[in-house]
Amino acid sequence: MRKVKSMCQKVWTFIKHMLLFIKKVLGRVFNVLKPSLISVSIGLFIGLIIMLIFDAYDAFPALGTLIAGGFTGGISGVGDMLEMAAPIMLAGLSVAFAFKTGLFNIGASGQMMMGALASLFVGILIKLPPLQHMLLGLFVGILAGAIWGFVPGILKATRNVNEVVTSIMMNYIALYIFTTMVITFLSQGAGTNSTSRPVANSAALPRIPWLFPNSTANIGIFIAIGVIIIAHIIIHKTTLGFSLKASGFSFEGSKYAGMNTKANIVTAMTISGVFAGLGGSILYLVQSKTIADFHIFTEGFDGISVALLGLGEPIGALFAGLFLANIRMGGYYMQLYSYTKELVDMVVAIIIYSIAVSAAVQIFLKKNKEKIKAFREKRKMIKNQRKVMKQASVNGGDAQ
Amino acid sequence: MKKKLIRYGIIFIAIYAVLLILHYTTNISLFYQMVQSMTTSFPILLIVALGGLISERSGVTNIALEGIMIMGAFLGIWFITSLESYPYSNFTVFVIFLVSVAFMLSFVLTLLFLFDIYREKKKCIPIKVKNWMKFVAALILAIPLTLVIRNIQVQKHFIFLMAIMVGGGVGALYSMIHAYAAVYLKSNQIISATALNIFAPAFSIFTSRVLRGSANYYIVTNMQIKEVPILSKIPVIGQMFFTNTYLTLYLAILIFIIVSIFLYRTRFGLRLRACGENPQAADSLGVNIYRTRFIAVTLSGVLAGMGGILYVLPSKAYSTTVAGFGFLSIAVLIFGNWKPRGIILAAIFFGFMRTLALYYREVPFLENLNLRSDIYNAIPFIATIIVLAIFSKKSSVPKALGQIYDQGQR
Predict the structure, then answer these.
(1) Residues of A whose CB is below 8 A from B197
(2) CA pair distance A265, A356, nearest whole angstrom
(3) Is A359–B381 a contact, with Cβ atoms under 8 angstroms apart?
(4) What is the ipTM, given to two decimal places?
(5) Of A195, A265, A306, B168, which sits most exposed with the smallest number of CB within 10 A?
(6) Does the pLDDT of residue A219 top 80, yes or no?
């Protein structure tokens, strides 16, 4: 009997320690994810309030669909969601990579457009055997994106022009070039019909029906995940990544340490452009996908939100991209209720805003840490005093 | 100063003489048409870029101009369409009341300003007007105006003025979100502005789809001025600026003059520029950096919201976008080297390129080139990048632009 008891105790202590360990790990993970999670919940909450204002009856089921996202449509819905996620993830990776070097790549959309344009040219006008065709399309897209990222980088490095401004200009130049090129060279009919032709089947990314039946999911998602892992390795495990991070952390300091900061800026912007260009290629190297209306790719701006939500980390961009794509799919399904899918954009905007503010709030908290500590201790003391008082009164009651 | 005036006068007279000769010898009606069409895009660029100027001169980057424009245009056109559907609902009357209060407040403030100048000269009238008194006066003055408007179908230029007020007010409120985050909460100025840019079109599409069923708006009233009475009879200038124009052109030029006087000739303007150049020094001299920057961003929001309305009025239709005019005016601001005079020249250039994109088919020399209109639209952006690259060493970017000001910092 005693043996059993001791065994039980041993098992209990083991479980206790395990629980403590899990709690510790979860706490650490939660601490890292705290700003993102809080911002997401603020965004969803304000979205719910907006829905309640416009139509109170449908609000809660619509919120459920919004959060469930692609999972509402079953396995094929998930496939569609992954197809949507791949370019967004890459755009987010592009912005996040620039963040690491202290640059704000608002021009991911322009880089994506140039990547998409180059891939479309290869995919529509050139004839090649399947695999080579696809690889050439992706390569050309990467190249175009790199060029479009290189320009703001070189201007920032040599002329100290703000990269945000140049990237915005480059976005619009890309838009006009994209429109002109697609309409004059790649449109279906001569002149009147400006819808583009779909890419040749040999150039399109192969679909994966064995994994996601009845969906348009293609291997783009695997490419995206692979690239994200590579980017993670570049940033965290190589000398290049270290020097990029260093010049982002302190420009003067890294210069003093003997790093070529100017070259670093150019490299970072170019690599960032590579990722965005690849994203553009993946976006449009798809079977029977055509372009009818021409505006700046919204995926690039999604990239900013993804990078911010993912805390500027490549791996973070992976999960944030999945989340954003999921919510976008949710927006499509939500149209069954009396709302339109633009609600998602509003939620995303609120999330971005609260991230921007939360960084400030965190800095504030960090600065006033001692004050907060003192406040907590004071509260604890008051609590203890109350406890003592209570006990004293209870004891007093007993004595009587 | 005198030399400069003479120089500008000579340039002006020379250009005018050349145009006069052309006017009487050949047919340049196409040129007039282009200038008249330019008067739709030029005021938008000018006003919004001036808004950007105020904000950036105080040291806060304002990429949210596009979003603010969309917001102003959206609520402004909502107001216009509700003014056009006579008789008015209670909500419209309420908005009319608010607008007329704003009208009267500005009226009272102008009067007081003039009165102040008079008082300083005479130094004899010891009346002190307190802030609440101004508000009360404006309220009392506004009530009869509201009652009058409620019972009369309003004139088209009055609609225009009221819509401008609504757009400005909405822009101010919306830009305060950015200002609060960027100035007081010390967050990244680009991130919060991006959030506003994403929010505005989504909000306008969502609201109008849910409440009205469609996101396309049309105005019935034609705001175009066929001819200005006497001025349109002047040979060249009359055809260029006083026929087939909109009230927006004159408003834009008026705002341009006001803003340049405000920035360079008033005490607050000087403080505002100091905040953008060296906030630490300005703070040590007793300028409240946070408040100055907040006001500057709000003012830029007012101008950007007005710009949104100006975009809507000539096209008479709105589908929840302002066609990148916000970003274009940031380009105007940079091209104009963060100075009012540069901005007006840049706005003329950019406006001209946009009209060229519309009219290039009718110019024989350009039609032979056989380019698409997108190329002409892209030229301003390319030019801005080239100018940035070449003149970056000379550019007068506000030195503290984009930096977060922290009092505790060294």
Answers:
(1) 301
(2) 24
(3) no
(4) 0.83
(5) A195
(6) yes
